[in-house]
From TrEMBL:
Residues 285-478 form the HpaB/PvcC/4-BUDH C-terminal domain. The lineage of its organism: Bacteria, Bacillati, Bacillota, Clostridia, Eubacteriales. This is 4-hydroxyphenylacetate 3-hydroxylase. Gene3D superfamilies: 4-hydroxybutyryl-coa dehydratase, domain 1, Butyryl-CoA Dehydrogenase, subunit A, domain 2, Butyryl-CoA Dehydrogenase, subunit A, domain 3. GO terms for molecular function: oxidoreductase activity, acting on the CH-CH group of donors.
């Protein structure tokens, strides 16, 4: 049995070498005991706990082509449409439990990008990256490790390409090519879950030109590798974590699960050859991102729909508590919220179903559909958040604290003020649901994750434009309007429409084994 249970996972994190981690001007000694990271540690622990729960086995584990026994889906490639759909469902279900990032998804998405890309490079260039990558994945499976996809570079001035940046560290780059590996430096930002990862899987953030060769780097390093410094980012609620003690449960945090984002500064970190999956093959950086984003942006629809369902639950509970649940406009707004959840879920499922098999054996979700899914995730959850805030009537902004609600002197008055007046619920129930909505709406990075995690709206729109077959759509109108009456053209266009079953996507130059 290779799967780690919660306790084994927590031990493995405690057993890591000391790391250079900073927050609010202080070095953090023990990440597993640091209040602002407690909810994040809980969230990842919960994912490990559920992975070893038989009731979740079908959803979170799979067989492996590399080792005996079940492995986490987050350490395995996606090999079919069914497995892609399972990734969506797992993301959704886990988000319904933890309401935040699984901390393990992106690592599996880095694998989903690296597998096909390494395979392509080997075919075209005679490299041995696919074998190295497969060996690394086997190691990850054997030890049931949590990995990140460390993509987003600091970037500096956005109009300059990586090699033009005055500070080279704005993008992770290769300082030295050695017989036994490479030495890398630079900064990657907004890294979700990185402080509790075992492995940091680095991939480029953008397509590269020849001059950017040294920035075309993909590799894996242990999170506790020498030369790494981390700085944890703030959240609006971070100081509230320090309030939790005695009878203060942390109701003001909204829930016990959250994620975290940190940046990593790599200062001349040595990466042994067997952990290097791209080193200067600049032409393949864009290809890697094409594969990676197809899976990463599919997942967005899964986890956003799970978070949205939890938001629906909290909002409808509050509507029940304060007695407005039967009002027509409240029902309509709750309806809009659940439709939002189902919309992004549906797009994610469609992206998985309509993908293709790459010659490496990896299944790649439909890129146009995946970018469409992610694009919608940058918009419509905000409508749901707005409805939630409207229905709970501003209390997510103005509610008193748990500390005051439990206070020996003023607690009784505060409870009276926040009592919903419904005999089935008390002030604490209302505060719990209210703080949950607040956490999702503005206390955590949940909405920022919807907007930017996995790429901002422009990145998704740009990719959707690239993967749409514009000539095909023009041809259908040339035929429909009689602009082109050439019988051969007309016949060919009808054939294309029929064979594409109405789809309008293109796969550009991506190699396809089967659709
Ligand atoms: C909560 C959260 C979690 C995240 N988790 C992860 C993670 O786990 N791993 C990871 O690698 N990344 C992660 N990210 C990073 C995320 O992928 C990036 O934030 C996103 O891709 C946007 O990149 P950026 O922040 O550098 O902004 P930019 O891409 O620089 O965009 C900033 C603005 O400038 C515009 N812009 C940028 N370049 C140009 C240009 N050349 N011309 C015109 N306009 C331009 C953009 O449209 C945007 O409006 C996370 C982000 C958030 C907010």
């Amino acid at each position: 049995m290779t799967l780690k249970n919660k306790e084994a996972f927590q031990k493995s994190i405690r057993d890591r070498k000391p790391m250079d981690v900073w927050f609010l001007g202080e070095k953090v000694d023990d990440l597993t005991k640091f209040p602002p990271l407690a909810a994040s540690f809980n969230a990842l622990s919960k994912v490990y706990e559920l992975t070893s729960d038989p009731a979740w086995a079908d959803l979170l584990t799979t067989d492996s082509d590399l080792i005996e026994g079940p492995v986490s889906i987050y350490t395995a490639p996606i090999r079919s449409a069914a497995e892609a759909n399972r990734k969506t469902q797992a993301a959704r279900a886990l988000a319904e439990v933890i309401g935040c990032c699984t901390h393990r998804c992106t690592g599996s998405e880095a694998f989903a990008g690296l597998g096909p890309c390494c395979y392509d490079m080997d075919q075209d260039l005679g490299t041995d990256y696919f074998k190295r990558f497969t060996n690394f994945m086997k190691y990850v499976q054997e030890n049931d490790l949590s990995c990140t996809a460390t993509v987003t570079d600091a970037k500096g001035l956005r109009t300059l390409s990586p090699h033009e940046q005055p500070d080279k560290d704005a993008y992770v780059h290769i300082d030295e090519y050695r017989e036994d590996g490479i030495v890398i430096s630079g900064i990657k930002v907004n890294q979700t879950g990185i402080l509790f990862a075992h492995e940091v899987v680095i991939v480029p953030t953008t397509a590269m030109k020849a001059e950017d060769k040294d920035f075309a780097v993909a590799c894996a390093i242990p999170a506790d590798a020498p030369g790494c410094t981390y700085v944890l980012g703030r959240t609006p609620q971070d100081k509230r974590f320090f309030e939790v003690e005695g009878d203060i449960e942390g109701i003001d945090l909204g829930k016990n699960f959250a994620d975290h984002q940190a940046f990593i500064y790599l200062d001349h970190v040595f990466v042994p050859k067997e952990r290097v999956f791209m080193a200067g093959e600049w032409k393949y950086a864009g290809r890697l991102l094409n594969y990676f984003t197809a899976v990463h942006r599919l997942t967005a629809g899964g986890c956003k729909s799970g978070g949205l369902c939890a938001l629906c639950g909290a909002t409808s509970l509050i509507a029940d508590m304060i007695g407005v649940n039967k009002a027509g406009h409240i029902k309509e707004k709750l309806g809009e919220m659940v439709i939002t959840a189902e919309t992004v879920y549906g797009l994610s499922m469609a992206a998985g179903s309509l993908g293709f098999k790459h010659p490496s054996g990896f299944w790649v979700p439909n890129p146009l559909m995946a970018h469409t899914c992610k694009y919608q995730c940058t918009w419509i959850p905000f409508n749901a958040v707005r409805f939630a805030r409207e229905i709970i009537a501003g209390t997510g902004e103005t509610a008193p604290s748990e500390i005051d609600m439990r206070h020996p002197v003023i607690g009784k008055i505060v409870q009276k003020e926040f009592n919903p007046g419904n005999p089935n619920y008390d002030a604490f129930d209302r505060l719990r649901a209210t703080r949950f909505v607040e956490h999702m709406a503005r206390g955590s990075n949940w909405t920022a994750m919807a907007l930017h995690g996995g790429g901002n709206p422009e990145a998704a729109r740009m990719m959707a434009i690239r993967f749409a077959d514009w000539k095909h759509m023009q041809d259908m109108v040339k035929v429909a309007t009689g602009m082109n009456k050439d019988p051969e053209f007309v016949q060919k266009t009808y054939e294309n429409i029929g064979q594409k079953k109405g789809a309008v996507d293109t796969l550009l130059d991506l190699p396809v084994a089967d659709k």
